[in-house]
Amino acid sequence: MNWLTNFVLPKIRAVVAPSKEVPDNLWDKCPNCGQMLFHRELEANLYVCRACGHHMRIDAERRLKLMFDDGKFTRIELPKPLVDPLKFRDRKKYVDRLKETQAKRGPNSDALAVAHGTIGGSAAVVAVFEFEFMGGSMGMAVGDGLLAAARLAVLQEAAMIVVPSSGGARMQEGILSLMQMPRTTIAVEEVKDAGLPYIVVLADPTTGGVSASFAMLGDITLSEPGAVIGFAGARVIEETIREKLPEGFQRAEYLLDHGMVDKVVARGDLHDTLARIIGMLRRRMPPAEVVPLPSRSEAKAEERS
Q1: What is the chain's mean pLDDT, rounded?
Q2: How far is residue 54 from each of residues 40, 72, 88, measured CA to CA in Å?
Q3: pTM (2 d.p.)
Q4: Is the pLDDT of residue 4 over 70?
Q5: Which residues pair with 264 in a beta bridge?
Q6: How many CB atoms lie within 10 A of CB 109?
Q7: Domain ranges of the chain
């Protein structure tokens, strides 16, 4: 029996045993066209659908890697604001929502990540929104983070780039979240007063109080293809004005046609585009030769001759 149980039975079980389950993360479905995409190929293509070109949302870490030279950067520790000063509660406590989200995204994390490095060899400070953190909503932590990013850019004499992806102000912080609109505007002005470039790369979605403040103040405004950009939602606008909105309203391409966006840039071209823009804005060209203008008498003499 030992020979049967120790040798024969395991061989039989190996033959008739059910096959291993296929991992859940092998395939992803494009939310735009429904095409099934092999996960590794999608990741290699920067989470852009090969079938329709739809740009899927990516986290802050991936976005920072594709923006900086060789994917190298240094993240900074952001100030820690007062947590839940309003003691807000809806279906659950705001503190509990923060703890749950931070358990997934990392301790002391919030909807903004800030890093510095080089883009095209030029110094740059990049602030990227994390949409997976409560819809990228802007609260006190985001306001503090953008102020820290602006002051770091001024200190390093670097270009400042912001990539918003947000549903707007964080309702759980009430009026305190709305106060971040003027605070972030002041942060942008500090960068501009220092004579440094301020570039915005609008990602899907950029709405609400974020679009009504720093997101629309860029010296250069870029956008990813197909990004939703606006203040109120299209359905709300239609119900308010009782009219059908144009096709593609609030999409990046529509805003490009109407002068709100300077250029729509595919994700794979973003690094080179930013490097070219920063290079043009930061490169100090040699002074032009001063050519003296002829005097009036000399000019009249030339006309007579």
Answers
A1: 90
A2: 17, 26, 37
A3: 0.84
A4: no
A5: 223
A6: 18
A7: 1-56, 57-282
Q: What is the pLDDT of residues 112-159, one digit of tens each?
A: 999 999 999 999 999 999 999 999 999 999 999 999 999 999 999 999
CATH tag for 57-282 (out of 3.30.559.30, 3.90.226.10, 3.40.50.970, 3.30.1060.10): 3.90.226.10
Structure tokens at 234: 């299209």
